[in-house]
Amino acid sequence: MKLALGIAALVLVAGCSNGNGTVTAPPIAPAPTVVLVRTELAPGFARIVWQATDGAGKTFHIDRQLNEKPWKHVFVQTADVEGGLILDDTTVSPGQQYRYRVLAGGAAPTAFQGVVTIVVPQ
Question: What is the model's pTM?
């Protein structure tokens, strides 16, 4: 019961006027939802296409993982007017497994979406 009252009091204080001004916060915008549309693979080439709902013109960060090594941030892209993201990765090696994940700019660092695993043909 004390915890619930403490949280309620904290919420009330955060939104109250203290006589010297008013505390306001912008509304939280929903993050775009990113889903995989298709992949195209060839030796030394991977094209990955995602669709971002409500993502037109927004910035996205794309991480890549080779086999089981640590994730690396490798690409930054802006979605087209329809929310499409097209990644052409010409740095992939034949026969290797890669994973990709997408993060909308400004989203929580753990809110990755559109995870895809590919194996580049030989």
Answer: 0.73
